[in-house]
Write a structure and sequence with these properties.
The complex is a heterodimer.
Chain A: H1 2-7, H2 9-12, H3 14-32, H4 38-49, H5 54-79, H6 88-99, H7 103-136, H8 141-158, H9 163-178, E1 180-181, E2 188-189, H10 203-219, H11 239-261, H12 267-281, H13 295-318, H14 324-335, H15 342-347, H16 349-371, H17 374-381, H18 385-404, H19 407-425, H20 431-453, H21 458-467, H22 469-483, H23 487-497
Antiparallel strand pairs in A: 1-2
Helix pairs in contact in A: 3-5, 3-16, 4-5, 4-10, 4-14, 4-18, 5-6, 5-7, 5-13, 5-14, 5-16, 6-7, 6-13, 7-11, 7-13, 7-16, 8-9, 8-20, 8-22, 9-20, 10-18, 10-19, 11-12, 11-13, 12-13, 14-20, 18-19, 21-22
Chain B: H1 31-53, H2 63-85, H3 94-98, H4 101-120, H5 122-138, H6 142-163, H7 175-186
Chain lengths: 505, 191
């Protein structure tokens, strides 16, 4: 009964309901405007909402997250520019549909399917999280350490082409997180004897710089390119259409939840895997895949919204984020004095159920925001970049300043913005940096706890890993990711795969 | 092209979060220099991490920093070696595709924003920044520039100062007094 009441908190307080609605609405548009991203919006918003109470702040951010994952599909369909990583797969068949003049239908189906996927995701979150949390209580410090390493590696390897660059980015993030005085021994780390470095680098400054300023600087290259107008007609899909794709959407939602729930993998991977799945199981697609097949749209869209619920499972129960956005949400929870992890479920179950309720509500608002206001939508999306870019920069400066009322944070933010700008240009993923920053503390603490409990003996440490099934699985996974990058892996693969020919040329 | 490459194949600059920049089998202008810079910086950080506690103990405060910076050095070295072997993209140049004048100018503008923020205060600095930036980017008349920049600044100020209660440096503008004046006006002079 208490649980139900906690879930319904959002509905009983008009203010919270309004904030979730507003957040979802904003999220849909932010996700849809090229040049604005959910990661950017959430990282800037953290700094503005940190003086608020927890519930309103979370309501707004959950709304933006949910709305943004969905909104990213709009630009994928209309402009072939995925608004969020999770919408990459959506563009494959969504854009061809828009080119055929079926943008309205594509958006309509996407909306309903996102809603459906989101629902499955939240349901799984509600059912699974309590069990995972209970299981997580048995985790050893070394398991947490391995999980953190695995998460960073997965984000680095799966979200872009080069794992080495991903590893660099992740390690760089961990190093940033270590700057300042060590909380255990008070030793100075990476402070270069400067007083301003002693308190560490505000992770919000890093986030806003990397996702706000660097993005805005990159957009300067495209100031001249105008948004393409698309004719959008009827968008509410018929019941027949929805029913036709229900079986497929159930399968792809399940894929979405499972992939989303793995630490280190988020909506982008889920969507791509669901797309592959749809390709394999659909015998007779409406059109060949890649040329505007409805199945190719249904699969990624259900999966990426289902992955949101899934991603909250490791985030809430283990404190390990699935991707950059969840890493930022964890940052937001930190700021509000919450510590995501198994103890959160024990100490503050209300908070967990409140978030479940907020996700559920945001999902409903997606349906409302998605199927209405298409005229307003086309107007907003056409906002000229010459106005948008200075505004993003302004908000980034305000956001970085607002957290600690410190100009130093503004300089950090600008520095990371410029650095992130070059990273983007040269194909270094930014997600692992943020994951590294967020997980740095957890990794460091748990490594030290683990090694101290083994009396500083590496032999005993590895013995511990090899005698615990969970640690062993995690360890093998970490090793496999590394091996997959060495020539050894390619040799094994070539021998197994036979004549696959030269790859990567 | 590498089938696993999911980068941005239109602009190669990672404009969208979804698509990191770069090419699969070529290096962009400046890419090698950037990789070398990362390697040098990583080496310096590794040396600095060693200075925290040396090889004192596995649980020392320097253990994880040393491990991570070592990972940075190794990965940066691999990136340098791989990048050096790639052919250069023939159609791009640093001045046009990586660091055009526009980007440098905005870097300077942002730095100026940071420098003036406290002494001048948020409202005048932001107004100045928006007017200059929008005028330069849009190339439209002063009427448009002033209306859009001051209008959006007003909206932003109202939202963040009043709804989010974010405190920004007041500088030369008596912001608190102004706000109190409007509050009194709104309350009809009550209390």
């Amino acid at each position: 009964m208490d649980t139900l009441m906690a879930i319904l908190t959002v509905f009983t307080q008009p203010q919270l309901l309004l904030l979730v609605g507003l957040g979802t609405f904003l999220g849909v548009y932010i996700g849809a405007i090229p040049g604005l991203s959910v990661t950017m919006a959430v990282s800037i918003l953290i700094s503005f909402t940190f003086s608020w109470d927890v519930y309103p702040a979370i309501s707004l951010m959950v709304g933006i997250y949910m709305g943004g994952v969905y909104g990213g599909s709009r630009t994928a369909i209309l402009l072939n520019i995925p608004g969020a990583p999770s919408a990459i797969a959506t563009a494959m068949d969504g854009y061809p549909m828009a080119q055929r003049g079926e943008a309205g239908e594509a958006i309509g189906v996407t909306t309903v399917m996102s809603f459906f996927g989101g629902l499955v995701g939240v349901a799984v979150l509600a059912l699974a999280a309590p069990f995972v949390a209970e299981f997580a209580l048995t985790f050893q410090p070394r398991d947490y350490m391995l999980l953190a390493v695995l998460g960073i590696l997965l984000v680095g390897s799966l979200s872009s082409g080069s794992l080495v660059k991903g590893i660099f980015a992740g390690a760089f993030g961990i190093a940033i997180g270590a700057v300042g005085r060590d909380p255990l021994t008070f030793a100075e780390r990476f402070t270069f004897d400067l007083q301003i470095m002693e308190g560490g680098i505000s992770f919000i400054a890093v986030m806003i710089g990397m996702f706000g300023i660097s993005e805005a600087l990159l957009q300067l290259h495209h100031v001249g390119t105008d948004a393409i107008r698309q004719q959008i007609d009827r968008i509410v899909p018929s019941w027949g259409t929805v029913r036709k794709y229900l079986p497929l959407s159930l399968q792809t939602s399940s894929i979405g939840v499972i992939i989303g729930a793995l630490p280190g993998t988020g909506g982008d991977i889920a969507a791509l895997m669901a797309y592959d799945h749809a390709k394999r199981v659909t015998k007779k697609p409406t059109r060949p895949f890649g040329t505007g097949a409805m199945e190719g749209l249904v699969a990624p869209e259900t999966a990426n919204n289902a992955a949101v619920g899934g991603a909250f499972v490791p985030m809430m129960t283990l404190g390990i984020p699935g991707d950059a956005v969840t890493a930022i949400i964890i940052g937001a929870l930190f700021i509000h004095g919450l510590n995501p992890g198994p103890m959160l479920m024990v100490d503050q179950p209300d908070m967990f159920w409140f978030i479940v309720g907020a996700l559920l509500t945001a999902n409903m608002f997606i349906l409302i925001c998605g199927l209405t206001g298409i005229k307003l939508f086309t107007k907003i999306v056409e906002m000229p970049r010459s106005v948008l870019i200075p505004l993003i920069m302004l908000l980034s400066v305000v956001g970085a300043y607002a957290v600690n009322n410190s100009v130093t944070d503004v300089y950090w933010m600008l520095g990371f913005g410029v650095f992130g700008y070059f990273m983007r240009h040269y194909g270094y993923p930014l997600g692992p940096v943020i994951l590294g920053v967020i997980l740095s503390r957890l990794l460091d603490d748990n490594w030290r706890r683990a090694i101290i409990s083994e009396r500083e003996d590496l032999g005993r440490f590895f013995e511990g890993i090899f005698t615990s099934p969970l640690s062993l699985v995690l360890f093998v996974a970490v090793v496999l990711i590394f091996v997959s990058q060495t020539p050894l892996w390619r040799m094994i693969f070539r021998r197994k795969g036979g004549q696959t020919g030269e790859s990567g040329k | 092209m590498d089938p696993d490459f999911r980068g941005d194949s239109d602009h190669h600059d990672g404009t969208s979060d979804a698509t990191p920049g770069g090419y699969a089998g070529q290096r962009r202008p400046g890419e090698l220099a950037f990789a070398l810079f990362l390697l040098a910086a990583s080496l310096y950080l590794l040396w600095d991490a060693y200075g925290i506690a040396g090889f004192e103990a596995l649980s020392s405060p320097g253990a994880v920093p040393m491990a991570t910076t070592a990972a940075m050095v190794i990965s940066a070295l691999i990136v340098v070696l791989r990048t050096a072997r790639l052919p250069k993209v023939a159609t791009e140049s640093v001045a046009r595709d990586i660091l055009p004048l526009k980007v440098i100018l905005f870097g300077v503008l942002l730095l100026g924003f940071g420098l003036l923020l406290v002494p001048l205060g948020f409202l005048p600095t932001a107004a100045l920044f928006l007017v200059v930036a929008i005028k330069y980017l849009s190339g439209r008349g002063w009427g448009f520039t002033l209306a859009v920049s001051l209008g959006s600044l007003l909206v932003i100020w109202v939202i963040f100062r009043i709804v989010f209660t974010v405190l920004m440096p007041a500088g030369i503008v008596p912001e608190a007094e102004l706000l109190q004046f409007f509050r009194n006006l709104g309350n009809g002079g009550a209390e």
